[in-house]
Fold this sequence. Notes:
0% strand; elongated; membrane; mainly alpha
Amino acid sequence: MFFFGLGKLVYAAILLTNAIAVLSEDRFLARIGWGRTQADPAFGATYDNTSVKAKTVNLIASIRTLMRIPLIVINTVIIVYQLILG
């Protein structure tokens, strides 16, 4: 009963996390200027880590790194659940 109403929300969150996890930094993110490896700033200058863009790029990289194994387990559980209970 608890997951009857929240099930769709959980599925949507997992799908969004999967979408972020499969983004290719070389093929997609770097083309739009959202890659982590950007040109080095000039001597004495610092890279702005406080901007929303920099924080979003770091969040995407963190999700890709930390959620790889948990997403495999979560996706497997959801697939088995869907196969058994429909």
